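User: Teach me something about this protein's shape.
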Amino acid sequence: MEKIIAGTTVQVNEEGYLTNFAQWNQAIGTNLAQEANVEMTPRHWQVIEYLQKEYKNDSPLSIRKIGKSGVVDIKEFYQLFPVAPLKTASKIAGIPKPASCI
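Assistant: First, the predicted structure itself:
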């Protein structure tokens, strides 16, 4: 289905995740963050970039893996994205919901 985010028409699934990563840009990420009540900082964007890099490398994501990434520890990850951190961060990053998320 289509949704207009930050003035751009994008394809999303029924949960609001982008279905075509190529449609993502930082304005869309910022808009998705606002919808999730997340105030993006440079630290947030570092985590988003890490998630996108892992996605492009077909590397499955989990909270544990992110905690061991050296990019962010689990405690800080929950501080940056307090509600459903991996689901929220993945949505902002424009990548599919990780299989490890219910």
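Now, about its shape. The longest strand covers residues 2-5. Residues 2-93 form one domain. If you'd like, I can walk through any region in more detail.
User: That's plenty for now, thanks!
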